[in-house]
Amino acid sequence: MSNQTNQKPSNKETLINPNSLHNTHVKLLAFDFNSLTHFQSPSSSHDPNLFYRKGIPISRVQVFGVVVTRDLKPEKFLRFSIDDGTGCIQCILWLNQLTSAYFSRRCPSDVRSIAQMANIHSIRAQIGFDVRVRGRVSGFRGLVQITVDDVVVERDPNCQILHWLECINLSRKCYDVQSCKK
Amino acid sequence: MASSTVNSGALVILEELNPSSPLFQNGASLRVTGKLLDYAVVTAVAVIADGSATLMIDTQHLKMNFRVGSIYQFIGELFLESDRQPILRARVGRNADGMDLNLYRQSLKLLKEFQAEQAHS
Questions:
Q1: B45 to A107, B57, B92: CA distances (angstroms)
Q2: What's the CATH number for A17-181?
Q3: A70 touches chain B (CB under 8 A)
Q4: Which domains are assigned to chain B?
Q5: What is the torsional sign of CA B103, B108, B111, B116?
């Protein structure tokens, strides 16, 4: 557990700051992602599941790595993990849109399209493939994970290198700077 | 929060994988990259090389085709045989033709520096 646990935003302004990383797809390396700290807000006006990197709230991430585990429960979910060389990241891709009560109030054709896209993303996540994953940060049984929005397969083996360099650059020039401003 | 339970393959350059390396131990999870020198169909053992260093890879759990001269990347666990000869039991492998190995080595160095820097910040 990181020692950053107690660095929480002092008020709501932090969450609506235009320079905030909230709702931005933050590019993170696995070791950085796995050290995000969780804070459950008691206030209903705040997102109940907030994750922090050095005291800065983060809700969405983009990660990259090789798919190393894959557990498919058809029409329920695909749980997979990706390894970027600095750690492994757990990902959950929901495939239950056609049976979940959560989607029952939405337009059936929209739900079918969402389910179809989720199936396409699940096929893309095959063991040994380099994938770029975007999604929401969530928690499951004490572990930080990604609730997947989309999966893109990258064929160029240099993409992993580019992701490392982008993460390093963004961290030094953007994410860590925001953390220092607080 | 706690990290995941799957072991990540630590990034290592073959030339750095020697008995003095902390990663040179039974069961260490590694990610290695190199050019395929040899592949024995009967034993499913491949030999990859990077510079002057070579490493044997046990590929029996992989379903992939091998071509001598191509670049491959493997993630798996290192095992030291009786004569301290290392072999990587690969659980994931892929062809990495087109990878810029010089850029890979330089980026790996930067990545490790960054990780060390973040650990101390």
A1: 54, 6, 14
A2: 2.40.50.140
A3: no
A4: 10-109 (2.40.50.140)
A5: negative
For A23, list phi and psi in degrees, rounded to 5: 70, 10
Residue type, B87: I
- Which residues make beta-bridge pairs with B111? none
> Nearest by CB to B104, which of A30, A156, A161?
A161
Domain boundaries, chain A: 17-181
Query: How far is C-alpha A44 from the geometric centre of its chain's CA atoms?
Result: 22
pLDDT per residue as tens digits for the range A50-101: 789 888 889 999 999 999 999 999 999 999 999 999 999 999 999 999 988 8
* Complex prediction ipTM: 0.91
Does B98 sit within 8 Å of A158, measured CB to CB? yes
Q: Which of B87, B86, B1 is nearest to A87 (CA)?
A: B1
From B99's Cα to the closest Cα of chain A, the distance in A is: 5
Name the residue facing A165 among B73, B99, B107 (closest C-beta): B107
Rounded to an integer, what distance in angstroms lies between the CA atom of residue A161 and that of residue A65?
10
Burial B90-110 (b: 16+ CB within 10 A, else e): bbbbbbbeebeeeebeebbee
Distance CA A60, CA A13 (A): 19
The predicted model scores a pTM of 0.87
